[in-house]
Amino acid sequence: MKAIIPVAGLGTRLKPFSLTHQKCLFPVGGKPVLEHILEKLVYTDIKTIDLVIGHLGEQVKEFCTNYSKFEFNFIEQQKQLGLAHAINYSLVESSEPVLIILGDAILNLNYNKLLSSSHSTLGIYKVKEPKRFGIVELNNKQIINLVEKPEVPPSNYALIGIYYISSEKKLKNSINYIIENNIKTKGEYQLTDAIKNMLDNGSILNSFEVKECLDCGTIESILRTNYEILTSEKSNYIDNSAIIKESIINNSTISKDCTVINSKLSNVIMLSGSSVENTSLNNAIIDNNNIVEYNIDKCL
């Protein structure tokens, strides 16, 4: 079985840092988001992973040289026309199942149980603001309707970024249908709309409630996730190459070749090669050119 992970996005909500760092490689809780995802697939039967790349795709290729367990295919998305459009680059005319995982969240679930499903099964998670998500309507655990970012949500259960599809060919046909008929939501070809087409054509869609979702799609959510991971582990992450002098560091990720001198850091993510001196920061991300600090109420 193969997995598809789309990581082509520009990371607009992570600017200015995403201008130089691919968003799936942001270090959160001491590891890039993509590493958190791949670690959870090591103990499954997945052997092949298609990564749909675009913005800063060479960074993704370089990172994946660290993983010998998987065979990686890198597929470039030529135009940014939506998630369904990105996924379609990887799909083939096969009746084999496929697992799709979005690259902007860390999910806690039983992957082997999900992969043993007899029908297509979508991960769902109860959210507070359903208007921001693709939302499902349920009859027990079976999905009877899907809608992308609805004005009047039929439930609070959101599609959370993991999809087990029982047939690549069925999904490919549905994506081709919405593209050929120019069916868009918010100006893009949405995976939710394609899966809705599968449902309309008789596919059975089950749901699988995800226990925990650590969002990494915005700077605020990245900082919140970093805090939750490191506080649960009661530690910092400090790379061996980092130089730390006369400083106090709490719940922070300090990447390769960073320098911290006479400073106090709390829930700070330092990207590779960055440095701080004589400063106090809470809930901040730092690179060579930017130090952006966020209001604690937004992050914790």
Order of helices and strands: EEEHEHEHEEHEEEEHHEEHEEEEEEEEEH
Share in helix: 10-25%
Gross CATH architecture of the largest domain: Alpha-Beta Complex
Biggest sheet: strands side by side, in what order? 5-4-1-6-11-8-12
CATH topology of the largest domain: Spore Coat Polysaccharide Biosynthesis Protein SpsA, Chain A
**The level-1 CATH class of the largest domain:** Alpha Beta
How many helix segments?
8
Low-pLDDT sequence parts = none
CATH superfamily of the largest domain: Spore Coat Polysaccharide Biosynthesis Protein SpsA, Chain A
Count of distinct structural domains: 2
Spatial gap, N to C terminus: 38 Å
Total number of β-strand segments? 22
Radius of gyration: 20 Å
Cα shape: elongated
Report the β-strand fraction as a percent range: 25-35%
Q: Quick one: biggest sheet? A: 7 strands, mixed
Please, what is the average pLDDT? 92
Which secondary-structure class do the elements indicate?
alpha/beta
Oligomer: single chain
Report on the structure:
With 300 residues, this protein is α/β, with parallel strands linked by helices. It folds into two domains: 2-215, Spore Coat Polysaccharide Biosynthesis Protein SpsA, Chain A, CATH 3.90.550; 229-299. 23% of the residues lie in helices and 34% in strands. The strands form six sheets. A seven-stranded mixed β-sheet has the order 5-4-1-6-11-8-12. Helix 5 packs across helix 6. The longest helix has 15 residues, at 219-233. The protein starts with a strand and ends with a helix. The model has no long low-confidence stretch (mean pLDDT 92).
